[in-house]
Every structure is written in C-alpha cells, then in structure tokens.
Design brief:
The protein has 437 residues and is of the alpha/beta class. 60% of the residues lie in helices and 12% in strands. It contains 19 helices and nine strands. The protein has a nine-stranded mixed beta sheet with strand order 4-3-5-2-6-1-7-8-9, sandwiched between helices. β7, α9 and β8 (247-252) form a beta-alpha-beta unit. α3 (58-67) packs parallel to α13 (301-308) and α8 (201-213) crosses α9 (229-242). The mean pLDDT is 83.
C-alpha cells in the first residue's frame, strides 16, 4: 500500500533518530547532544488546519485523508461545531474539555440578548449560536455544573456525544482531542476547526491560535456552490486576521456538478475567477500573493474514502452502497482503484506534501542532518590529520638509519636555534618594558 505523507515524515524522523544513535555510538557526538537532537525531532509538531463551511465534507475528507477509515461522524450543525484536534495516542480515545463556569455564563448572557436589537451580522451569528447551545444544554439538567471547567476522557466510539448535533455534551464541549494509535500521527496535529461565529471568545481565539501556528491551512469548499459569500468571509476576514502564510483550497464533492455535465476545469476556473475578484476588492497584497500561488483542487473525499474501505463494509452499509453505485454509474467505473484515481485526493495530498517538505521537512530534517554531518566532518578532518601524521611517520621509518640520525641532528639544531631566537626576543621585550616603566 502506498504510504501517506504522515508515514513518510515519520519514516524520515525514525531514520534520523537511528543515525543520531549511531553518531553517538561512533563517538561523533556526546550523549547530551544526542538527547538534544532526538528531543528536537520528537517534539516538533506538524500542524495542519482544516477550515470551511458546514456540509462541505470536512469530516469525510479527514476520514479519507488522515484515517483511511470512517472514524469521524457526520458533521454537527454550524452552531454546535467543536474544535477537534487529531493526534497520536497509544490507544483510541478522546479527551473533551468543557467550558468553564465563566465561559458558560458568558454564553448564557449572549443567549439572553434580543436578536431584533442586533444590527451586526457577526454579532447576530454569535447570539444565534449561543441560543442553540443553551437550548441543547437541557439534556444535562442540573448535572451541568459538575462538568464545567473539567476534562473528560471517553471511548472514541462515543465521539458523537461531544461533536454530534444531538450529542449529550455538545452544548458545553469547548474542544475535543482525538487520540489514534497510528505511528504516522506521532508529531502530527490535524485541527478540524469550527466556524468563526463562536459565542465563546476563548474558543474562537483558540481556533485562531491553532491556525497561526499551522504549517498549512486547507480551505474546503463545496462544489455545489463554490466560493460563495460565506467562503469569502472565511478567507478574507478570518484567515486574513490570523496572518496565515500557507493556504490550499480544495473543492470537495466535484462529482455532484460533474453528474450534471460540469467538468472539473469549469469548476476550478470558476473558483479561480471568483478568488481573483475577491482579491481585487480586498486590496491585501500579502493575502493576494498567497492566493495567486494557490490553484484550487477539485476532489471527492467520499470517493476516496470508499476506495479505502473494505468492500464488506461498503456492502453492509446502505449509505455506502448507494454512494458506491452512484459514483460507479456517474464515472462508468467498477473498481476501487478507479475510484481512488478519480477522487483526486492525491492531488491535494501532493500539494500538502510539497508545502510540508518546503516549510517543515527542510527545517525539521535538514537541521539535525546538518548537525550530524558537521560532527562527521569534524571526525573526518581529525582522521585525515592523523592519517597525514601516520604517513609522515611511515615515510620517516622507511629512511636508512644514517639518514634518520642526520635528520634527528638537523631537528636538534633547528630546535636550539628556535630556543636562542625565543630567548633573544624575550630579552628585547624585557628591555622595551623597562624603558616604558
């Protein structure tokens, strides 16, 4: 099976760690330097942020891109979206962080506001979100106070209770960390972000903080209505505020307009033109430069996921079975291999890989590699010096005994001359010092 970008990065790290151990074993570096390099390799984190409107297929994309399995449930409503972080763990589990009492009171205060009195669309969106979340909190009843400010570990099977629209804890869940036992996720954070209309300021700030440190941000559009007003706001208001320098754009579910006779290039060209218009209106040179270097990529995350799932799983699930038949009929194909190729997820993966290799691997891999190379070069230089000395010694030993005695006498005379010269210079220096005093 072809390796994903996370597996490749993990393999590079493991190779570098093995080389570091060897360098210590050969005496090139000290134990302290060995630990320093390995800590740097292990503690450095690759962060990928995924943003976009609800129903654009982010969960399916993450299932295909990260897990190659149906791990994440269907997305929540826009108002209940939770910040989710996917990373490595020794076993499958989740850790939920709940709002503090102050944050919950802030939310209740927002929910008590009258929508008719609000003229700002952003504020209106936040108040609507607060009202929905407070209304959903009735499921917890009087026990709600016992959860506020706490964290809770749970089985990954119960994830929907924290991120699902009707989940028991969805109203008070601030963020969820998903731990998954895949080696390639070591040193990786994939951040599934909620909208920027969060009624809790601290959660929105956390989203921005994650995106600020992201090595790459993927904006997912829905091909049925790509780059509409909401997408423009996400990119030109929210992403712009975060100061993000690496943005990729995926146009998900391209198979839907394709079924109606619209080809990939038409979808892509439409988005390119809409982005150009938005850039002209925005007048932000930095963001414009970033977007000018970005080519939108049509893809179908669902097709990619179906190409990775066992056929027994697909046949046992009515939704998967219907989707499989639709895609096969739509593209006139019959194998998972064809489905994977036409999903075009590899195109987006390749774009992510390019950025990771330029922005991350060059720093993460090159710096320790150069440190080991420098240590090796130092050892090599010392060995070369010793070799030259040995060669000179061998050359001397090959002389006849008479010549060696003659050479020894010459060296002795040269040594005496140098000593006399040093003594004379010392006397001259003493005389100069006396005159100065």
């Amino acid at each position: 099976m072809e390796k994903n970008i996370f597996e490749e990065l993990r393999e590079k790290k493991d190779t570098l760690i093995a080389q570091t151990h060897k360098a210590k074993e050969f005496g090139w570096i000290s134990g302290e330097r060995e630990k320093e390099i390995i800590d740097k390799i292990n503690n450095d984190v690759l962060t990928i942020g995924v943003i976009g409107q609800m129903k654009c297929g982010k969960s399916t994309f993450l299932n295909a891109f990260v897990f190659q399995d149906a791990v994440l449930p269907a997305a929540t409503t826009p108002m209940t979206a939770t910040l989710s972080v996917i990373t490595y763990g020794e076993k499958k589990k989740l850790k939920a962080e709940f709002y503090t009492s102050d944050e919950w009171n802030e939310q209740k205060q927002q929910a008590s506001r009258n929508l008719e009195d609000i003229k700002n669309s952003v504020e209106e969106s936040k108040v609507k979100a607060a009202k929905e979340l407070v209304s959903k909190s009735v499921k917890l009843g009087s026990s709600i106070n016992s959860y506020l400010g706490q964290t809770k570990e749970d089985s990954l099977d119960n994830l929907i209770e924290y991120v699902g629209a009707e989940g028991k804890f969805v109203s008070i869940t601030k963020s969820v960390t998903i731990y998954y036992p895949e080696e390639y996720l070591k040193g990786v954070e994939i951040v599934d972000t909620p909208g920027f209309n969060d009624p809790i300021v601290s959660r929105e700030e956390r989203t921005k903080a994650f995106l600020n440190k992201a090595d790459v941000v993927i904006l997912m559009l829905y091909a049925g209505r790509p780059f509409d007003a909401t997408d423009r706001d996400i990119l030109f208001k929210n992403v712009r505020q975060c100061g993000i320098g690496k943005v990729l754009i995926g146009i998900n579910k391209y198979d839907i307009p394709f079924a109606n006779g619209e080809y990939e290039d038409e979808i892509k060209n439409y988005v390119v033109e809409e982005i150009k218009k938005a850039c002209r209106d925005c007048e932000d040179d930095t963001l414009n430069d970033i977007l000018n270097e970005t080519t939108p990529i049509p893809l179908s995350a669902e097709m990619s996921l179906l190409s990775k799932l066992p056929m027994s799983t697909i046949n046992a699930n009515d939704i998967y079975q219907t989707a499989w038949k639709r895609h096969c009929d739509n593209f006139d194909i019959s194998t998972q291999q064809d489905l994977a190729k036409l999903s075009h997820l590899d195109n987006l993966t390749f774009a992510v890989k390019n950025i990771v290799e330029k922005e991350k691997a060059n720093i993460l891999i090159a710096k320790p590699t150069n440190a080991l190379k420098a240590a090796g070069d130092k050892v090599k230089s010392e060995i070369n010096k010793q070799c030259l000395e040995c060669e000179e010694l061998i050359k001397n030993l090959s002389y006849p005994e008479e010549e060696l005695e003659e050479k020894k006498e010459m060296l002795s005379k040269a040594s005496k001359r140098l000593c006399r010269k040093v003594d004379a210079l010392r006397e001259e220096l003493d005389e100069e010092m006396r005159q100065v005093i």
